[in-house]
């Protein structure tokens, strides 16, 4: 990987299950790293500089996409696609991946910059926030804008999986709903709260309950958003305190967005709702967006699948919804609108994430490299306000 690549290791954990084979281990890897059953290269969103090209992409071009957390040069087989400056990886080994992981995008830079690997401070800052937030932020944007479309009369709602499945305007309606966000401290959930606050008045929910292990920063962020609908933030152990508040909103629907709640907290919430006299009537809709960050046993994975079916959870898939939107509206229109919304969020980001800060690391090995950051993530030692970003 070229020196200027920037990666977010937290996102790498979230995508690990479905992307382990994106960048296969080199056949010459020394033992024990040649054991593909136990070891692999973790990919992550970020940037890389083109050092050699047989396409129309000039050397020195910066590409945004899904890269290995590695300092070794990476070969891609790219084919131009819409809109201009977008490329699709067509290698046979990548065809099992969802489409969003195979898209690479040229980053506009001045012609003079192509011959220099150096970046200005403002440019690096923007790249860091992209690497840290862009993937999960886009996922939250798609949920708010297209799954729960704020104007279903002009925009057909899209099923959370993006497939040709029934998802009506009634399913998408939030005007009579209260939303419960589980794992509200996650970057996807925080982005979702922001996007909800930006919806037109007629499409906003009656209220939002944010359940988290870190109530203070989430509560402050909710105040900064100055949303026109009420928000309540509670700790996992205090979920019961939100029930009467929810009941007072007199919603006809309760939408639970599970962004990776702690073990048992989801089941406890459902039980509390079920046993609350004023909350038995509203329809309960459950959207499974993420999972708790942990290593799952085979038994736990099976239990999770059974729970999905038993509780009627609807799985969400960013790539599937993105594909459906581009098919309906065109890729150029989609990315133009996405860029506009992202730039506005970036300009005002401190309103929705006032506590969040970039923590820069360097290289692969050691405490200051990806090795050290990965270890901290696995041990739960990375604070909710820290965003780990690495320059390789």
Counting DSSP H or I runs of 4 or more residues, the number of helices is 12
Structural class: alpha/beta
> What do we call the CATH homologous superfamily of the largest domain?
NAD(P)-binding Rossmann-like Domain
What is the strand arrangement across the widest sheet? 4-5-6-3-2-1-14-13
List the domain count as a whole number. Answer: 2
C-alpha-based Rg, rounded: 21 Å
CATH T-level fold name of the largest domain: Rossmann fold
Report the biggest beta sheet as strand number plus sense, adding barrel if it closes: 8 strands, mixed
The CATH class of the largest domain: Alpha Beta
Describe this structure in words.
The chain has 392 residues and is an alpha/beta fold. The protein folds into two domains: 6-119 and 356-391, no CATH class; 136-321, NAD(P)-binding Rossmann-like Domain (Rossmann fold, 3-Layer(aba) Sandwich). 35% of the residues lie in helices and 19% in strands. It has helices spanning 9-19, 121-147, 169-172, 187-197, 215-225, 243-248, 265-274, 298-311, 318-329, 331-347, 349-352, 370-378, and strands at 6-8, 43-49, 62-68, 78-81, 86-89, 103-107, 177-182, 207-212, 231-235, 253-258, 283-288, 314-315, 357-362, 386-391. The strands form two sheets. Strands 4-5-6-3-2-1-14-13 form an eight-stranded mixed β-sheet. It has a six-stranded parallel β-sheet with strand order 9-8-7-10-11-12, with helices on one face. Strand 7, helix 4 (187-197) and strand 8 (207-212) form a beta-alpha-beta unit. The model is unreliable at 1-18 (pLDDT under 50).
């Amino acid at each position: 990987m070229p020196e200027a690549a920037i990666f977010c290791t937290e996102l790498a954990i979230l995508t690990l299950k479905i992307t382990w084979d994106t960048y296969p281990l080199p056949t010459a890897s020394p033992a024990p790293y040649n054991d593909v059953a136990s070891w692999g290269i973790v990919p992550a969103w970020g940037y890389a500089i083109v050092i050699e090209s047989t396409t129309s992409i000039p050397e020195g071009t910066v590409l945004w996409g899904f890269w290995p957390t590695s300092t070794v040069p990476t070969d891609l087989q790219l084919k131009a696609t819409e809109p201009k400056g977008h490329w699709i990886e067509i290698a046979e080994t990548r065809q099992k991946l969802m489409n969003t992981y195979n898209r690479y995008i040229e980053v506009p830079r001045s012609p003079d910059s192509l011959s220099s690997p150096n970046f200005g401070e403002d440019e690096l800052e923007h790249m860091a926030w992209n690497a840290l937030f862009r993937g999960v932020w886009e996922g939250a944007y798609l949920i708010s804008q297209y799954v729960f479309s704020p104007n279903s009369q002009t925009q057909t709602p899209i099923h959370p999986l993006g497939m040709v499945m029934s998802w009506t305007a009634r399913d998408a309606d939030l005007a009579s709903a209260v939303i419960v966000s589980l794992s509200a401290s996650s970057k996807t959930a925080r982005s979702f709260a922001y996007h909800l606050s930006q919806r037109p008045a007629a499409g906003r929910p009656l209220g939002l309950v944010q359940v988290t292990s870190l109530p203070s920063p989430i509560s402050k962020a909710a105040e900064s958003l100055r949303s026109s609908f009420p928000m309540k933030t509670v700790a996992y152990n205090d979920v019961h305190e939100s029930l009467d508040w929810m009941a007072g909103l007199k919603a006809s629907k309760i939408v639970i967005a599970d962004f990776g709640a702690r073990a048992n907290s989801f089941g406890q919430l459902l039980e509390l709702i079920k046993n609350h006299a004023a909350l038995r009537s509203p329809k309960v809709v459950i959207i499974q967006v993420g999972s708790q960050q942990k290593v799952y046993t085979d038994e736990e994975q099976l239990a999770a699948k059974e729970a999905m079916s038993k509780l009627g959870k609807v799985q969400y898939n960013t790539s599937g919804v993105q594909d459906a939107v581009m098919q309906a509206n065109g890729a150029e229109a989609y990315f133009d609108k996405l860029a506009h919304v992202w730039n506005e969020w970036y300009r005002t980001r401190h309103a929705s994430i006032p506590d969040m800060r970039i923590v820069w690391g360097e290289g692969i090995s050691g405490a200051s490299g990806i090795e050290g950051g990965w270890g901290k993530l696995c041990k739960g030692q990375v604070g909710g306000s820290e965003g780990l970003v690495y320059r390789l």
